[in-house]
Specification:
Number of helices: 2
Order of helices and strands: HH
Structural class: mainly alpha
Largest sheet: none
Length: 63
Amino acid sequence: MKTFQQQFEELENIVRTFESGDVDLDVGLKEFEKGMKLAGELKKKLDGAEVKLETLKKEYIKS
């Protein structure tokens, strides 16, 4: 399983590919799909981290 940083870097590379403007349609569609999947996975990880931080914050405020 890739780390958050590895996935983020992979997503950045996909974005750079599109920004270059030199993307074949078939490759572009595959990269877009891959990028959307990565973005979803990253969002889930961030959401999970946010929930964990909020839980920890509430636990330490009670103490």
